[in-house]
Amino acid sequence: MVDEILAGLPFKAGTVSLPDGEEIPLREALIGHYDIGTLNKSIVQKWQQRSGSPFLRSLVAADDKKAWDDFCWGRDLIDLILDYPADFNDGDEFVSVLKRLQPRLYSIASSPKAHPGEVHLCVGIVRYHSFGRKRGGICSTFLSDRSRGLQPGVYVHSNNAFRLPANGETPVIMVGPGTGVAPFRAFLEERKATGAKGQNWLFFGNPHRATDFLYEDEITAFQKDGTLHRLDLAWSRDQKEKIYVQHLMLQQGPELWKWLQEGAAFYVCGDATRMAKDVDAALHTIAEEHGGLSKDGAAAYLSQLKKDKRYLRDVY
Fold first, then answer.
1. Residue 197 neighbours by CB distance under 10 Å
2. CA–CA separation, 39 vs 48, rounded Å?
3. 37-55 mean pLDDT
4. Which of the four pLDDT bands, split at 50, 70 and 90, describes residue 225?
5. Quick check: 176 and 246 in contact, CB under 8 A?
6. What CATH fold (topology level) applies to the domain 1-99?
7. pLDDT grade, residue 19 (50/70/90)?
8. Higher pLDDT, 153 or 306
9. Where does 121-181 have alpha helices with state H?
10. Which residues contact 24 (CB under 8 A, 6 or more apart)?
11. Distance of CA 183 to the CA centre of its chain
């Protein structure tokens, strides 16, 4: 991808200066230091100033959010270079319009008590086609395709607002479809290792059971040894009607409300755009239907759960 970018630039690639003052070849800078895999409004605006494209000029002038979203989705830097050529004098001017490559945050999927000295991740590899080109997530495809023999930069980011209850007897309800199951694998390992007596309930979902049941053997083992007391599975594409975790929550509404009344902590991890909102809406419905609360009463109840650190979310 970088070689294709370099071939399309109007200048001969040399070295560029990184923000810390280090001079490195432009090719190396694009591979390891700048984001070439996503577009946003800021980049397109800067690009348009150096491009004679009437389309980009009209896009910037209109400044319509939907038009921005439609244009940026599924495109990356190579599309600007090939379809909307721009004039740059040298590499430093070129990288000045780009974003620095940002770290990717992954939920830790393991307990240090179960795996001393190790940190496990659960990564979904992003691959798709758009505008006639194969695309991929920058970090996920690096880990799956290009990381062998390399040591990527890694750091631990602590989330103090997403932890197991201090009291091991507290029941725990976990909603983690897709790779959102990651921290809950860690939670279950931790609860088992510490001998926590509180019951554990997991809602998990993905498109197909046959191919997408992440950690199936371990989750099944947690059921058999009594660590996992309840498991509800939503396979959205295994039948004609799509079934998601929020649908199972509503089906189990009376029991879920009972757990909350008994002091359970409720956790959600995964997609913030739709899943987390749908799960939150299901919780409101359960509080109304099985708790006998009004809409305002249900909202106040869930707000209090958050204040009491019994409704915790790690969404992205």
1. 11
2. 13
3. 96
4. very high
5. no
6. NADPH-cytochrome p450 Reductase; Chain A, domain 3 (1.20.990)
7. confident
8. 306
9. 138-141
10. 15, 16, 18, 33
11. 12
Instruction: For the chain, give the number of residues.
Output: 316
* Beta-sheet strand order (sheet of 200-206): 230-235, 200-206, 172-175, 265-270, 311-315
Beta strands 133-136 and 127-130 are antiparallel
Q: Where does 172-315 sit in CATH, by number?
A: 3.40.50.80
- For every residue of 91-134, DSSP letters joined together read HHHHHTTSPBPPP----B-S-TTTSTT---B--PPPEEEETTEE
State which H helix or E strand residue 269 sits in. strand 265-270
Calpha distance 214→180 (Å, rounded): 10
Domain ranges for the chain, please list them: 1-99, 172-315
pTM summary value: 0.92
Helix H or strand E encompassing 40: none
- Report the first-to-last Cα separation within the chain, whole angstroms: 27
